[in-house]
Amino acid sequence: MQTSPLCQDQQLWEVFSSCPRDTCHQPSVLPSSPAWLFEAGGAPSWTIAFSPKQIMDFVMSDWANQFRLSQYVSQHFMYPRWSVNRQDHAKAKHMAPSHLKGGTWLKDVGYSSSLTAQMVRGLISHAPIGHYRKRFKVGNQDESCPHCEGGPSETFRQVLFKCLKHPTRPSDMPNFTKATPHWEHFGKFIMDNPTAYAFVDSPAYSQTVDHRTRTVTRWAKGAPTSTRTRKAKS
Question: Cβ–Cβ contacts within 10 Å for residue 166, how many?
């Protein structure tokens, strides 16, 4: 059985990375000309530096593809969307997972344990809301919202867009949409409403909610969405 060039070169990279420096040929001593990479009539070989990049590109592509599957992230995961202009939320694209600079979402909220907890509980709908209690048959399994007239179903979207218990919402956030939330709207919402998706009756709640560290500057100022690059799913 033959191995692919990628596997072969990965093995070479592992050997190169683990061998003592005084016994391995370092890239700095290789000829500056690329001619040494070619054999007469043969195809060019991959460099050691190129292989990790190819491997990482493959891993990231596979991760993004897996992330689209409900079997991977759960059918209840609320894929947040992002666009340079959050007011143009209808054209926003789903955010893709990343390991760079703290990850896709944690780069904004990871410094605050309460914001992180809210984010996770909200996006996966594992929060003290009627939808969760009915789904997992926990405690009072009444799915209706106790804070709103008429007792609408207390779901992730109802809490985010409609619930009267959490009246502070971004001014440019739509009243309701069937689409998954825009990251900037959702982020500002949980920052301004610390009890949303939170277990406020837990003894640990008061210990983890530090209002001094729950601030994301651009959300607090109501500033336009940052123009920094974010990867989005097609």
Answer: 19
The per-residue pLDDT for range 223-233, each reduced to its tens digit, is 443 333 344 44
User: DSSP labels for 121-188?
Assistant: HHHTT-SSSHHHHHHHT-SS---B-TTSTT--B--HHHHHHT-TT-----TTS-S--SSPPBHHHHHH
The domain in which residue 41 lies consists of: 5-67
Which tokens go with 177?
A: 């949409």
**Up-side HSE of residue 107: CA atoms within 13 Å toward CB?**
14
Position 164 in a domain: yes
Q: Are residues 83 and 162 in the same domain?
A: yes
Structure tokens at 194: 């610390």
Does 215 lie in the same domain as 136?
yes
- pTM comes to 0.68
In this structure, what DSSP letter does residue 232 have? B
pLDDT tens per residue, range 79-93:
899 887 777 777 888
Q: How far apart are CA 174 and CA 144, in angstroms?
A: 22
